[in-house]
């Protein structure tokens, strides 16, 4: 029943306009069997006068035959609509209810508490902003409490209400409530659940549901309904990174071509530059079209149709983002571009009776559309009760595991923790077309994250780093020269190698092209391949540094996050990042191989500076502009930095 308003009788259009402007909160109830989830929702609706009279009369009749509350109306029956649910007194399927108050509109998902129906709970929680986790005051924190808390955390639900129910059965004891609160905090702190709202209540009696409880004067918080009406659902909404998955290309006539979808993050306005991925082609937004007219601004959750100034090739499954060329940031910056990869590192909830086996083919549905995919590796299965990681060769119904997946085409995505829309997917059985798994993307899966076999152990050297430094007269370090093609990386690295060698230093140069003729000859130039190329160079550099040698590596290395990972591999104290900040116009003039021209013509895909981004370092150890500084000056600048860091002695 909608919130009553005098406007309904006097001005129905004004009432509808007022109703339309209210924000919407989607929330779910979860917890163990018989904790009172359905009763709580029934009480919430009943005490808020949200049940129609004829529905209430039917509920009173059903309570006589199926109720469990004696002569009282069994409010749990309001949500338990299946015959099997009423017979067993449990929730099996996800039940949804809609209602509104003067402040806000609500959609409730009543989810099952039984472990057997964990997949239903995941389905109900997938679009929710808030979770009400019920705990029976008599039993305290149970295994299913921990399971559902983990799933709530996994699904990125930011707002959690822990409702300690049935306080009437423990004599409204503050001591018991405090004990349960302490137990829950001890578990939830390890999950990263931020500031859960602990609330003592009795759903059956109505205490602290809509009205404050007279039986618990020691509790000074607000009742559940007031919390639901006032919780800030906009907190944590990403307004910086624009993401617009294209769901439909509309062409009603020859004069209109629009791209329909829902803004997943960020904002967009006419005149903004956007880039279509995976093509990397940019254009300008002309109009933001809706049924009610054009908008000047659209934000997260708004379904719109965008028209662009240029006729560029965009299809369903592409993603429009803020202009990538303008977002040259480090990975932790709010303007990160989406990730692109065939390989995914993801948390998977298995939802089928048929086992998940590595290598078996599935369909992967994401905002990018359908792809063929398989689970390459199950890294570990999570024990929900202890949060321990277990080895697993397969996944069964309701298992939750960290997996590596591979798709047959490059996907564009964000980590799920950053964007629930672009960071999620489902797995579909190719024969039955049934959904068998739900996934939350952690990031790209690559050899960066691989762990060696447990039987492999490091072999310690009998020569100490101090002995090597004394023999060679230097401290080990890796100098990474990064910049666009044509910036002068090879020229500078060769000159630096010559100078160090002439001074008696022991140095190894890992030239980008030479590496690709050897240890990386199997790699292409996609983002994952460039990442793997730098990983291999970093591993070789670390090994050489361990032998006391200096290493010079000249690579484009366009992604800031990947360069940061290389720094982690080599070691921060040994890693020197030198950015050749040479204007792209100069780089083009130096391009004897014609690579920029080929990229302009579309003959070379994903070419940094043309059809792919180059993320310039924000804080390199040294910045050089080889269009203004000669090779000799650049070499001297690097040598001065190495001396300043104590890698070279002043005499060298």
Molecular structure report:
There is one protein chain. The chain has 652 residues and is α/β, with parallel strands linked by helices. It has four domains: 224 residues, Rossmann fold, CATH 3.40.50.300; 84 residues, Translation factors (Elongation Factor Tu (Ef-tu), domain 3), CATH 2.40.30.10; 107 residues, Elongation Factor Tu (Ef-tu), domain 3, CATH 2.40.30; 180 residues, P-loop containing nucleotide triphosphate hydrolases (Rossmann fold, 3-Layer(aba) Sandwich). The chain contains 17 helices and 24 strands. A six-stranded mixed sheet has the order 2-3-1-4-5-6, sandwiched between helices. β15 and β16 form a beta hairpin. α11 packs across α17 and α13 packs parallel to α14. The chain is globular. 41% of the residues are buried. About 4% of the residues have low confidence.
List keywords for this structure.
652 residues, alpha/beta, Rossmann fold, Elongation Factor Tu (Ef-tu), domain 3, 4 domains, six-stranded mixed beta sheet, 17 helices, 24 strands, globular
Number of helices: 17
Helix content: 25-40%
- Within CATH, the superfamily of the largest domain carries the name P-loop containing nucleotide triphosphate hydrolases
Number of self-contained structural domains: 4
- Mean pLDDT, as a whole number? 84
State the CATH topology of the largest domain. Answer: Rossmann fold
Q: What is the name of the CATH architecture of the largest domain?
A: 3-Layer(aba) Sandwich
**Main pleated-sheet profile:** 6 strands, mixed
Strands in their spatial order, largest beta sheet? 2-3-1-4-5-6
Stretches with pLDDT under 50, minimum 5 residues: 80-92, 324-335
N- to C-terminal distance: 83 Å
């Amino acid at each position: 029943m909608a919130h009553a308003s005098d406007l309904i009788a006097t001005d129905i259009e004004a009432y509808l306009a007022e109703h339309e402007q209210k924000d919407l909160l989607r929330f779910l109830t979860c917890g163990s069997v018989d904790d009172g989830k359905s009763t709580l929702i029934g009480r919430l609706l009943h005490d808020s006068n949200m049940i129609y009279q004829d529905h209430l009369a039917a509920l009173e009749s059903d309570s006589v035959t199926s109720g469990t509350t004696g002569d009282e109306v069994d409010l749990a029956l309001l949500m338990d609509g299946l015959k099997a649910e009423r017979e067993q007194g449990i929730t099996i399927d996800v039940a949804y209810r809609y209602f509104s108050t003067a402040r806000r509109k609500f959609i409730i998902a009543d989810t099952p508490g039984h472990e057997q129906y964990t997949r239903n709970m995941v389905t109900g929680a997938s679009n929710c902003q808030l979770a009400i986790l019920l705990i029976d005051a008599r039993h305290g924190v149970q295994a299913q409490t921990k399971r559902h808390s983990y799933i709530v955390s996994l699904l990125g639900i930011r707002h959690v209400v822990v409702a300690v129910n049935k306080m009437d059965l423990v004599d409204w004891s503050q001591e018991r409530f405090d004990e349960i609160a302490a137990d829950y905090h001890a578990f939830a702190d390890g999950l990263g659940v931020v500031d859960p709202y602990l609330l003592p209540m009795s759903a059956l009696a109505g205490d602290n549901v809509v009205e404050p409880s007279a039986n618990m004067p020691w509790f000074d918080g607000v009742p559940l309904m007031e919390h639901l009406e006032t919780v800030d659902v906009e907190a944590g909404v990403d307004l910086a990174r624009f993401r617009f998955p294209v769901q439909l290309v509309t062409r009603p006539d020859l004069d209109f071509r629009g791209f329909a979808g829902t803004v997943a993050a960020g904002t967009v306005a006419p005149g903004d530059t956007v880039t279509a991925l995976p093509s990397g082609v940019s254009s300008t937004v002309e109009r933001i079209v809706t049924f009610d007219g054009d908008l000047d601004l659209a934000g997260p959750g708004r379904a719109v149709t965008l028209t662009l100034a240029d006729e560029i090739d965009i299809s369903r499954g592409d993603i429009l983002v803020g202009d990538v060329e303008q977002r040259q940031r480090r990975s932790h910056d709010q303007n990160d571009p989406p990730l692109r990869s065939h390989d995914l590192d993801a948390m998977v909830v298995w939802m089928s009776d048929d086992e998940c086996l590595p290598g078996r083919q599935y369909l992967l549905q994401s905002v990018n559309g359908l792809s063929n995919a398989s689970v390459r590796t199950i890294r570990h299965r999570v024990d929900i009760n202890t949060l321990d990681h277990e080895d697993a060769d397969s996944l069964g119904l309701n298992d939750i595991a960290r997996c590596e997946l591979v798709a047959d085409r490059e996907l564009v995505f964000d980590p799920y923790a950053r964007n629930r829309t672009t960071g999620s997917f489902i797995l579909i059985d190719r024969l039955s077309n049934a959904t068998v798994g739900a996934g939350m993307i952690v990031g790209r899966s690559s050899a960066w994250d691989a762990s060696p076999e447990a039987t492999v152990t490091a072999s310690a050297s009998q020569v100490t780093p101090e002995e090597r430094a004394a023999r060679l007269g230097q401290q080990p370090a890796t100098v990474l020269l990064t910049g666009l093609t044509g910036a002068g990386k090879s020229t500078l690295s060769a000159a630096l190698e010559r100078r160090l060698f002439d001074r008696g230093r022991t140095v190894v140069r890992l030239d980008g092209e030479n590496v690709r003729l050897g240890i990386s000859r199997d790699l292409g130039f996609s983002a994952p391949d460039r990442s793997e190329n730098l990983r291999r160079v970093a591993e070789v550099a670390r090994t050489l540094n361990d032998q006391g040698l200096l290493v010079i590596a000249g690579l484009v290395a366009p992604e800031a996050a990947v360069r940061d990972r290389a720094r982690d591999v080599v070691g921060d104290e040994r890693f020197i990042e030198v950015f050749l900040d040479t204007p792209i116009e100069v780089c083009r003039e130096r391009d004897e191989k014609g690579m920029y021209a080929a990229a302009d013509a579309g003959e070379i895909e994903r070419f940094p500076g043309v059809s792919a981004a180059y993320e310039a370092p924000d804080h390199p150890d040294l910045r050089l502009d080889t269009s203004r500084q000669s090779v000799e000056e650049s070499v001297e600048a690097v040598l001065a930095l190495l001396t300043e860091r104590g890698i070279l002695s002043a005499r060298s």
